[in-house]
């Protein structure tokens, strides 16, 4: 996710002219289902809320004056959402009053609200990824610590997160070091290597102006590190910005990264020790300008959610599918369901980062995304929502006359939701 690195500015043309928006979000559950077992769990996740955004939207004088000074109107919904002076900004970045606090124990996700850890501090794990550590039976969430040092880890039950500290610290002195404080570290991903017994972290490494475009590799002996930084490299000799790592069922791991100036994605296999990439590489979604890849697998098919490249501004999410991970990959379409059209077309004002499998509900996942706040990145919010593959009602998949026709991937909007009991087993 690169600020100032915009490969295509797909502007939201949902203008706010004479427009009306408020916080009275009332919603209707679109479907309810009474089925049994796994499908019941899945069905409980596969419901979206329709947000009814209406009634007069009050714009402050300060905001209107600022807009006039910029001589920019009408603003798009996304421009206004990103503008700190806009009341709309506060709607989507609500303050501490709505913070999710694990001490209260309700276990509801509230996408966009401040999310506190077990010490009652806002979680700092942006652009994050999840490791399920089979040895300890614990989930670890690694993300960007945006308050100054970099690379953070927390862990537990997908809702109650304990801060495990900085696992890969910034270098405060050595200006030529990749981890020097003014450089960029984004989207850390950790996987466990059964052969070496090491936890291996891959991350996007860059200079402040995003010209280095590399990946960095670090290793640790435990999920909480400390991780030792090994080096950075340009995979396959190519520029690499937004990236992710996918570890397959057979233990083979893959690096997926935006390349060629973010115009396409590349997929390459890691070496057996996960410390390098092998020579083989496939170019996918060529010319489509996608970033923020999040990969998962269901019933032998690979899926990926991506965003367009519009800097920190949100844009439309797309789902893609492939029969083998090296492709060919096909675009299925926008997975977002619920909310209003403009909200869906901006991926609920967020950008994909990871997809977490729910072992007790096959075909159901948690979609993890970031609602970036570019003026204050440490106050960026998390948007976690249920994602399903296929149709939980068991209806036939939507017909597509192209080949092959893929199951539908759906991400359901909820203001408030929780995991069904039994998601873990
Ligand atoms: C600073 O970092 C560079 C690059 O990693 C390294 O080669 C050099 O030895 C480091 N210098 C010191 C004083 O640690
Ligand atoms: C980007 O920053 C690096 C140092 O961090 C510098 O060497 C390079 O010249 C800069 N590139 C551009 C295009 O400004
Ligand atoms: C973000 O950083 C600013 C100062 O840089 C600080 O005042 C603020 O409390 C931080 N916000 C969060 C959510 O950590
Ligand atoms: C909604 C709610 O009950 N929030 C409370 C959760 O617990 C913290 C700390 O005890 C309180 O400050 C909140 O008011």
UniProtKB/TrEMBL annotation:
Alphabetical list of InterPro entries matching this protein: Glyco_hydro_43, Glyco_hydro_beta-prop_sf
Pfam family, one: Glyco_hydro_43
Entry keyword Hydrolase: yes
Signal peptide: none
Keywords linked to the UniProt accession: Glycosidase, Hydrolase
Family: Belongs to the glycosyl hydrolase 43 family.
Name of the featured protein: Uncharacterized protein
Organism: Hibiscus sabdariffa (roselle)
